[in-house]
Design a protein that fits this description.
single chain, Alpha-Beta Plaits, MutS, DNA mismatch repair protein, domain I, 4 domains, 6-stranded antiparallel sheet, 5-stranded mixed sheet, 13 helices
């Protein structure tokens, strides 16, 4: 019998800020871009649960988050604190938490900076796995002053959904015989891989819950979503064979920046691209890789049209200079008639590398 736990730290970045800056505790905290009194660019990285009561959510434009916070303040609610964030601190705290989680697990997989999967199948039953999860929650709280939410289920899919069921500081156990009863009343959006567009498409078909999604036959789902239809068919039934892997590695490393104002000034855009490239290359080395083969640039114009271009080298690229050369080669056409005949100004650029090569020369493929 497989027993899988998914651990998800609660509002991680904001919680770390509260932990290390007592002056913001008990206040709504928003981590992200500088709001500049509603004129700022960029988005919210995360918000604590007090800020979420104002309607502030991750990935929301920071200007909208500021307006929501101001509206709450006008109603007499506590004033929100906006912070730029400290990723090096978050990574340091994350590494200590991951070390705690890895102890005593049959297999451990760090899914992101603030979430991980544990294989606990060697426990005799779900009750013992639940006791182990409670002990982990206590240790993280005692050592780091942070809470997490845990889902325990027969597979990674259901465990991930369960960890979000009782946030914050939740613990939800879904035994094999309870999987469908647990899933059926939930909104389809809880299924990993269903984003806003797919949710809107299904909603237009009258499909809002997992029960309603299960009622759709596989041929119809395949007609709508191609090969993704079979994946949805299985997920709606709580089926997943994905294993918790000790060999998990990042498949890409990237950075992006939203400019303070839309621009088509080539010298400025290219300098920002070089700066992003430097940070990407630093992270590549910091995460234990020595090279990469694919470079991707992303450009978002003032009208929010977003385009990416990639190039894959036959040989691994091993230097910051090589990364910059490839990134600039891909970016330059967006600054002239080749990719930008209407001379639209640029709002955001991103630089990402993929097909990462480890120190032992093995390529990490998506």
């Amino acid at each position: 019998m497989r027993i899988i736990a998914h651990i998800d730290m609660d509002a991680f970045y904001a919680a770390v800020e509260e932990r290390y800056h007592p002056e913001v505790r008990g206040r709504p905290v928003v981590v992200g871009a500088d709001p500049k009194e509603g004129r700022g660019r960029g988005v919210v990285t995360t918000a604590n649960y007090l800020a979420r009561k104002y309607g502030i959510r991750s990935a929301m434009p920071i200007s909208r988050a500021w307006r929501l916070a101001e509206a709450a303040r006008a109603r007499g609610e506590p004033e929100a604190v906006f912070l730029r964030g400290n990723r090096s601190l978050y990574r340091e705290v994350s590494q200590r938490i991951m070390a705690i989680l890895a102890k005593g697990a049959d297999a451990f997989e760090e899914a992101s900076i603030d979430e991980a999967y544990l294989d606990l199948s060697s426990r005799a039953d779900f009750a013992q796995a639940e006791a182990h999860a409670k002990a982990l929650k206590r240790e993280i709280l005692e050592c780091e002053g942070l809470t997490c939410s845990v889902g325990i289920a027969p597979n990674k899919l259901v465990a991930k959904i369960a960890s979000d069921f009782q946030k914050p500081d939740g613990l939800t156990v879904v035994r094999p015989e309870e999987v469908q009863t647990f899933l059926d009343p939930l909104r389809v959006r809880v299924i990993p891989g269903i984003g806003p567009k797919t949710e809107a498409f299904l909603d237009a078909k009258g499909i809002r819950t997992i029960t309603e999604l299960r009622a759709v036959g596989l041929p119809r789902l395949a007609e709508w979503f191609g090969r993704g239809g079979e994946d949805l068919y299985r997920k709606a039934r709580g089926m997943s064979e994905s294993l918790v892997s000790n060999e998990w590695e990042p498949k890409s490393v990237g950075e992006q920046e939203t400019f303070e104002s839309d621009t088509l000034e080539a010298s400025f855009i290219l300098e920002q691209a070089r700066r992003l490239g430097a940070e990407v290359f630093r992270r590549v080395l910091a995460e234990g890789f020595r090279a990469f083969r694919t470079v991707t640039v992303t450009v978002r114009f003032a009208d929010f049209v977003t385009t990416s271009r990639s190039r894959t080298s036959r040989v691994p690229l091993t230097s910051h200079q090589a990364l910059n050369a490839e990134a600039l080669r891909l970016l330059l056409p967006f600054l002239d008639a080749r990719e930008n005949p209407k001379k639209k100004k640029v709002r955001l650029i991103g630089v990402r590398v993929e097909k990462l090569v480890r120190e032992d020369g093995v390529e990490c493929r998506a």
